[in-house]
Amino acid sequence: MPAAALATDAPAVAESGVIPWTPATVAATLGIFLFAGLAEIGGGWLVWQGMRKGRPWWWIVGGVAVLACYGFIPTLQPPAASFGRVYAVYGGVFIALSYAWGAVLDGDRPDAGDWAGGAVALAGVVLAWFWPRR
Questions:
Q1: Tens digit of pLDDT for each residue in 44-53?
Q2: 44, 105 in Cβ contact below 8 A?
Q3: What ranges do the domains of the chain cover?
Q4: Residue 66, number of CB atoms within 10 A of its CB
């Protein structure tokens, strides 16, 4: 499909709320969620390290800068993805990534409740993001 046709169809696709799923679209949207999670958790972690672990002040400044950049990342999702759905689905991704970050960087050990909660959150991600819409 020519680029001009895609540009003219973009408002109709955005208004429909239906994301045209292909393997590439699935990979791209999940990559954007992963990128957003790493930015938000990474920025928050840097601030946490500065405020609670006594790291130098520039860790906090760096964390704030990363968090500011994070705010733009969800806008990279497809035009048909609404703000509310993107952020709701991202919430589930954020939960799972937060546990993973804590385990890898801080040595946290998730317990059964953490595993169960993370699984429920990821199940919600799959349902909300990939539910067939018309």
A1: 999 999 999 9
A2: no
A3: 22-130
A4: 19
The rounded distance, in Å, linking the Cα atoms of 124 and 97 is 14
* Beta-carbon-side half-sphere exposure of residue 79 (alpha carbons within 13 Å): 11
Helix segments in the chain, DSSP class H: 3-16, 23-52, 57-70, 83-106, 112-130
- Could you tell me if 44 and 110 are in contact, meaning their C-beta atoms sit under 8 angstroms apart? no
Burial class (CB within 10 angstroms; exposed 0-12, middle 13-18, buried 19+) of 116: exposed
Among candidate residues 58, 119, 28, the one with its CA nearest the CA of residue 19: 28
- Look at residue 36 and tell me whether its pLDDT is greater than 70: yes
DSSP, collapsed to helix, strand or coil, labels residue 74 as: helix
pLDDT, tens digit, 9 for 90 and up, residues 103-133: 999 999 999 999 999 999 999 999 999 999 8
Q: Which residue has the tokens 């938000």?
A: 40
Burial of 4 (0-12, 13-18, 19+ CB in 10 A): exposed
Burial status of residue 54 (CB atoms within 10 A of its CB: 0-12, 13-18, 19 or more): exposed
The CA R_g of the chain, rounded to the nearest whole Å, is: 17
